Amino acid sequence: MMPVSARRRTSALLILMAVVAVVTLPWALFSARAELSFGPHEARYQITADSRLTVDFGPLGKLLVPADEYLPLGLGLTVDIGEIPVSGVEEDEGRAGASERRSDRDPPASASSPESVGGGAVDALGGDVASYAALFSAPQAQVDEVVDGMTTEILARWALAVCIISGAAVAMAFILGPVRLAGIGRALVGKELIGIGLVTVLVLASVGTAVLTRPTPLVADPAFEGTPLAGAQVTGRLGGVIDAAFTAVKDFSDDNDAFYDQVLANLRSQWNARPMTGNWSDQGMVPPPHGADQGVSADVSTFVFGSDLHCNIGMARVVGAVARMSDADAYIDGGDVTMTGTSAENYCLDVLDDELPEKLPRMIVKGNHDSTETTSHARTQGWKVLEDSSAQMSGVTFFGGPDPRRTVFGSGPQLETDLTADQYAQNLRTEACASDFDIMVIHDPRIGAPSLRSGCATYSLSGHWHKRVGPETLGSGVRYVSSTTGGALANALTPGPLKMDAELSILRVDNRTKRPIDVQIVTVSPDKTVTIDPWRTFPRPVPLIAQPPQTEPSTGGG
User: Which H helix or E strand runs over 389?
Assistant: First the structure.
């Protein structure tokens, strides 16, 4: 017997893998499970063949939505709704001892500080309504999460099945040897029609089963008329409360959309009239008068800086608009994108990510209302995360680290590390002194203060206080503290129309010296007005010997 050539063996293996891939695709498709989120809930997703989206709320009942327009080939999707995570219990239990060791310099949460917000049933329910409204207002982030999660699970199962079955077949062929394989091949010659017949029977049986088990048509609930859920049906006890619940969510969503639609219209009308004066370099060059023939060659980078968004997806639209209109080179976030940092709140970052220009570089540092889960998720979305590290954007080197605390509604700040805020601030100063960078980004200004005072950081960007400070000198450096971009007022839910002013900063940095030149603040007020301030120049750092003693403002922060 002539030996089989390597080319024929390779061809046979490829054909085998192709056949196995076709056979195992349905199994991978319908057996995949993805643990994701649904609004404020944890949820499990699974592909079905009933051409409908089934949201299963357990004993309460189900929400059934026609899926013909969204999924091909009669496919459907089942969503098993789980709990609403509150504080990341598993992580917090492991840190119970460290949680008791608070920073002596951090003031206790008072009735006026955001740490004291939440914990009550009314606050929790209000937050859930806001989360559902966020899902209703910006569903694309949820859709992208589901598509990515399910695709990953399906491909992983499919690849595993192809590898295992193909590997088993190859191993069996190796064990049997060419002589026995040839004998098996001769035994199967002439029986092709039997094989084709068996395959035809199996296909017809599968199609017949699918047809016979096709679910009955949905009985549309009139409460959904004129909404994205038109044609949906509710079953079980959920039907008794859906009208009131859905009306509350829809009203919240409609008010939110109307508010920020007007804000964006006001922003566009104010943008062309915004103050254009200001330094174009840290050497004091200014642009010529409007209409002058001779231009100024400005070698600057423009950064949009926001902080303390606190899951206000309406203001995320404003952030994206300002980034586009300012032709920003990158977006920098000073932390507190979420409210408590649970996995379900990754949705808050996803909405912001979707609103920013697609190819715009973006950077984030963890705030005390975020968690390590938040920044890990940001990294998977392509964000640069500062974790006691440096990163470059547009030629400028940024250095920073995560806030060591995690603020959980109802229980106050807890530590995610064994270091208090004071201890971490000293460690950060040591690392800053050993690093070469241009600008520090840190959520809480107090944690970055030792680095500025020691001269190891020249400039810093922060948030946390929900109050703008600077730009001002501190020690031998200069700091700028941004107010809340989400309009996060104490004792009030952040998502929705604003309850206090929200601010966003546009910074210009001299590309030659890598020093911040100036900053322009965009303010959105609760009455929907938009104000764009004149450019504020960053002061030059002053040697320590010329600095008087300085004290920190007494603010609880966010």
Answer: strand 389-393
Two tokens, residue 260:
């920020």
The pLDDT, as a whole number, for residue 223 is 59
Enter the tokens of residue 108: 């206790």
Cβ-contact 144, 152 below 8 angstroms: no
- Peptide bond just before 471 cis, omega within 30 deg: yes
Q: What span, in angstroms and rounded, lies between the C-alpha atoms of 37 and 216?
A: 28
Sign of the CA dihedral with 151 first, then 160, 383, and 298 last: negative
Give the 3-state secondary structure of residue 481: strand
CA–CA distance, 173 with 181 (Å, rounded to integer): 7
Give the integer Cα–Cα distance in Å for 537 and 82: 51
Give the per-residue pLDDT at 531.
93
Pairing of strands 362-364, 330-333: parallel
Written as six digits, the tokens of 135 are 């899902």
* Residue 315 confidence (pLDDT): 93
Give the pLDDT confidence score for residue 233 in this predicted structure: 65
DSSP element (H, E) containing 406:
strand 405-408
Here the tokens at position 146 are 């589901």
Q: Is 464 left (phi over 0), alpha (psi -120 to 50) or beta?
A: left
Query: Any idea how long the chain is?
Result: 558
The pLDDT averaged over each successive group of 10 residues in the chain (558 residues) is: 57 72 76 75 79 74 72 77 59 36 36 39 46 56 70 82 79 68 56 62 61 61 60 61 62 82 93 77 58 58 94 91 93 91 84 92 93 91 92 92 80 70 90 92 93 90 92 90 89 79 93 91 94 91 60 53
Q: CA torsion 119→121→124→125, rounded to 10°?
A: -170
Beta partners for residue 439, in sequence order: 398
Give whole-number Cα distances, 482 to 23, 144, 388, 532, in Å.
57, 31, 21, 15
